[in-house]
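Hey everyone, long-time lurker, first post.

I ran two proteins through the pipeline my lab uses and got sequence/structure pairs for each. Pasting them in order. The first:
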Amino acid sequence: MLARTRSLTSSVTSALRLLRSNQVVVSAHVTRRCLCTQTDGEIRIVEILKEKFPLASSLKVVDISGGCGAMYEIHIESSEFKGKRTIQQHQLVNQALKEEIQGMHGLRIFTDVPKQ
């Protein structure tokens, strides 16, 4: 039993070291992924939203599906939302992304009007 516990502890310790060093082990190959870079899908969505909402004062797009592009979270703040209800703001974002949404599993949208 003691040997099994040591083996498990050793495995957990190794896994934690890999996580701390920002490495992912896949089929005995070590791959690095910098968490500060955007995925292609995130970049594409940001470009579309910047074009559709040029007055946006804040825009953040995050692939929350683990990088496969199936689900995104969008935070956008724009004066173009002023006077519109939340549902109308979300409809504008959905309309801007109608082509991309077809290939997604889900989308979280957070909209706001800049505080002045």
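...and the second, right after it:
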Amino acid sequence: MEKILILLLVALSVAYAAPDPRGIIINLEEGELCLNSAQCKSKCCHHSSLLGLARCAPLASENSECSPKTLYGVYYKCPCERGLTCEADKTITGTITNTNFGICHDIGRSKQ
């Protein structure tokens, strides 16, 4: 019994010492299935239809369609990359139904 316990402890310590940098639940790559944007490296869990499977996707680039950040954590259109802002009509109905899409713009460039 002691030998089995020691063997189990050694196996657990080896598994813990060499973790995989890619996660099973978090730190997911683009294209992997997700339930929430917090799981993805890109911070965008995207689905194309209400019944479709959500997958990690890249953030929207400049002049691309986007969604403002949402509480749900799953998007029809991904939010903008860092430094860009999503110019969208932020109505209550659009927020609830997740249909308030816009276009990513560089706010620094638009002020000049």
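Reply from user beta_strand_b:
Welcome! Quick read of the second one: The first helix runs from residue 2 to 17. Residues 14-19 have pLDDT under 50 and may be disordered.
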